Amino acid sequence: MAYDLKREEEVKEFVENLGIEYRFGCYKENKPEVCHLLADYLEAIKKDFDKAAKVYKSNCMEYNYGKSCLKYGNYALIGRGREKSDPQEALKYFEKGCELNDPTSCLHAGLLLTATGPAISVQRDVPKGYNYLKKSCDNNEAMACHYLAGMYLSGVPKNPKEYNPHNPEKNANIDFLIKPDLKQAFQFAKRGCELGNVFACANVSLMYKKGDGVEQNLDESKKYFEIAKSLQNAHETTKELKFQQGLESK
Q1: Its GO CC terms (predicted)?
Q2: Is residue 12 domain-resident?
Q3: What number of other Cβ atoms are within 10 A of residue 17's Cβ?
Q4: Could you list the residue range(s) of the whole structural domain that residue 65 is in?
Q5: How many domains is the chain partitioned into structurally?
Q6: Beta strands at 176-178 and 156-157: parallel, antiparallel or unpaired
Q7: What is the pLDDT of residues 194-214, one digit of tens each?
Q8: How many CA atoms lie within 13 A of 90 on its CB side?
Q9: Most exposed residue of 139, 178, 189, 199, measured as fewest CB within 10 angstroms of its CB?
Q10: CATH number at residue 150
Q11: Which sign does the torsion angle of CA 49, 52, 58, 59 carry?
Q12: 70, containing H or E segment
């Protein structure tokens, strides 16, 4: 059946039928990818976060669908579809998603395990977190590569309270879990840039300009600056298109 999506009543009918199709595909045909779509439908169309959370959770645990593990982990982290935030529960699902080779789950698990600060209630485990971030980067998650570059740029102190980012000389005698390594930082930044992370490209440009971790090359610095600028402009254009889409056709 063809729908005229300019007519409100037909849009409503289309949306309801979509939900019926997703429920059938999930509960009758046991298709995990359709269960994930059903949860997305409950989240985005019905705004029923409690039901969406239950579908994401069961699809992760029963069907081993990595993207649903990621979504339920995010719900647990921010307290959506539940009474309160539970970072430890979130980590459990991010780790399962990572085991199922979802690179963004690996990223989130790595960030939780390496983060510091009073708001972080997850036990810090930098080696484990590093491995998650490395797997994420190896599987083309640009932000993970960018984050790894940052870890090597400044190093990761064993005791973050001893680290002084504004006075590097005072950091000479502290213990590091990951020592500063500009060559490693450059390699991860370059990989992040290749995958489209604008901040990674900006770092590559700066490192070429200063000769940090790579031989100084002002031409390459300018090249990566232009790449970063192009990515930033594309991002701004995409945001504008999303805001304006459909206006001209009305």
Answers
A1: mitochondrial intermembrane space
A2: no
A3: 12
A4: 19-105
A5: 2
A6: antiparallel
A7: 999 999 999 999 999 999 999
A8: 26
A9: 139
A10: 1.25.40.10
A11: negative
A12: helix 66-78
Tokens of 234: 């594309």
Please name the residues in contact with 80: beta carbons below 8 A apart, sequence gap of 6 or more.
Answer: 49, 53, 74
Dihedral sign computed on CA atoms, order 184, 188, 190, 191: positive
3 state SS of 178: strand
CA distance 188 to 196: 13
* 148 and 82 within one domain: no
Q: Is 77 within 8 Å of 84 (Cβ atoms)?
A: no
The predicted model scores a pTM of 0.87
Q: Are 61 and 32 in contact (CB under 8 A)?
A: no
Q: Is the dihedral of CA 192, 198, 203, 206 positive or negative?
A: positive
| Residue 176 phi, psi (nearest 5) | -115, 140
How far apart, in Å, are the Cα atoms of 246 and each of 32, 66, 240, 241? 32, 33, 12, 9
CB-based contact 87:112 (threshold 8 Å): yes
> Would residue 116 count as lying in a domain?
no
Q: Which residue has the tokens 């990566």?
A: 224
CB count in 10 Å sphere of residue 236: 10
| Closest listed residue to residue 57, CA positions, set 44, 75, 31 | 75
Q: For 127-146, what is the mean pLDDT?
A: 98
Residue identified by tokens 């980590």 is 91
Q: Check pLDDT > 90 for residue 10.
A: no
